[in-house]
Specification:
Largest sheet: none
Structural class: mainly alpha
Distance between the termini: 104 Å
Order of helices and strands: HH
Radius of gyration: 41 Å
Number of helices: 2
Shape: rod-shaped
Oligomer: single chain
Low-confidence stretches: none
Mean pLDDT: 81
Length: about 100
């Protein structure tokens, strides 16, 4: 209908052509190299973060289980020996023996 001109009338642009300039600008922006580089950088950062988080979790699991298996029994045994030495000193003082300094190794 826009092709038919009426004499003395005002022709208005069609609605579909009014929305095209906005979509053209939007299409240009989304297809620009800067936006595609930004998307690629964000994707790479997410991939790296996910991999880092996964490997950090694995390392934390290994460190935690190693600590529990190796060092906790050692700490318990050292505490037990400390209590045993204190008990010997207490018994020796009750029996009247002169207090001796515990042997350090």
């Amino acid at each position: 209908m826009a092709a038919q001109h009426r004499r003395g009338g005002i022709s208005l642009p069609e609605r579909s052509s009014a929305s095209k300039p906005h979509s053209n600008i939007l299409a240009r922006i989304t297809s620009s190299p800067i936006v595609s580089r930004g998307k690629q950088a964000a994707s790479d950062a997410a991939f790296f973060s996910k991999k880092l988080l996964r490997s950090t979790g694995k390392a934390a699991w290994i460190a935690g289980t190693t600590f529990l298996i190796l060092f906790v029994p050692l700490i318990i045994e050292m505490d037990r020996e400390q209590q045993f030495n204190e008990l010997e000193l207490q018994q020796a003082s009750l029996l009247g023996a002169p207090p001796t300094a515990p042997a350090r190794s």
